[in-house]
Amino acid sequence: MRILTWEEAIQAEKYMQEAAKVALSATCERSKCWSVIVKNWKIIWTWFNSPAKNLESQRRCSCDKSSYHRKVTDKTCCIHAEQRALFDALRNHPEEIQWATLYFIRLDKDNKPSKAWKPYCTICSKSALELWIKEFLLYHEEWITAYDTEEYNTLSYQYDEL
Ligand SMILES: [Zn+2]
Ligand SMILES: [Zn+2]
Predict the structure, then answer these.
(1) What is the tens place of the pLDDT at every residue in 101-157?
(2) CA torsion angle 33 78 27 91 (round to 10)
(3) Any bridge partners for residue 148, and if so which?
(4) CA–CA separation, 94 vs 101, rounded Å?
(5) pTM
(6) Domain limits, the chain
(7) Are the beta carbons of 119 and 82 closer than 8 angstroms?
(8) Could you give the CA distance from residue 124 to residue 137 in angstroms, rounded to a whole number?
(9) Which ligand is nearest to the CA of 122?
(10) What CA–CA distance (Å, rounded) separates 144 from 67?
(11) Under CATH, which number does the domain 2-51+75-157 receive?
(12) Relative to the alpha carbon of 78, which ligand is closest?
């Protein structure tokens, strides 16, 4: 992983600020998240989290995760912002996705960008790696950190916070 510096950090900070606005559109009742895919400092695609296809019939935001059978691999409620950004970039800009950068941000209760946790979402980490995304960027409050996607996937599987 590396901490962004100088122009890279300033530009990334701008994307993160834009993020807060897009994330407000998220309809998940648990958290408001945002993700953007950037290639050569150009935004390719951006998305927030919501039930799959925005269908109310698929809303599981209030379901208790422990109620699912252990074979249910994904117990999270909504399509993750990163999943959506990846799917849509794949659908609309497949030629640009390789070596692109993926940003992720979550809003706090006051709709302000919150400090990111350590990587833990193996759904998104595996997908980003499989799609040849170059780096995963997280907002660690006072600095923005870029993780190589292979490292990000490894770290996600090693997550051990309580
Ligand atoms: Zn949800
Ligand atoms: Zn995820």
Answers:
(1) 999 999 988 888 888 888 999 999 999 999 999 999 998 877 889 999 999 999 999
(2) 80
(3) 135
(4) 14
(5) 0.90
(6) 2-51+75-157
(7) no
(8) 12
(9) 2
(10) 36
(11) 3.40.140.10
(12) 1
- The Å distance, Cα 35 to ligand 1 centre, comes to 15
Sign of CA dihedral 150, 82, 102, 108: negative
Question: Could you give the C-alpha distances from 43 to 78, 97, 150, in angstroms and in order?
Answer: 23, 11, 22
Q: Of the candidates 138, 145, 132, which has an alpha carbon nearest to the alpha carbon of residue 104? A: 138
The conformational region for residue 27 under phi > 0 = left, psi -120 to 50 = alpha, else beta, is: alpha
- Compute, in angstroms, the gap from residue 81 CA to the centroid of ligand 2: 7
CA angle 151, 44, 15 (to 5 degrees): 70
For residue 56, give every residue at least 6 positions away whose Cβ sits within 8 Å of its Cβ, in sequence order, or none.
none
Ramachandran quadrant class, 6 (left: phi over 0; alpha: psi -120 to 50; beta: rest): left
Adjacency order of strands within the sheet including 101-106: 2-3, 143-148, 135-140, 101-106, 33-39, 42-48
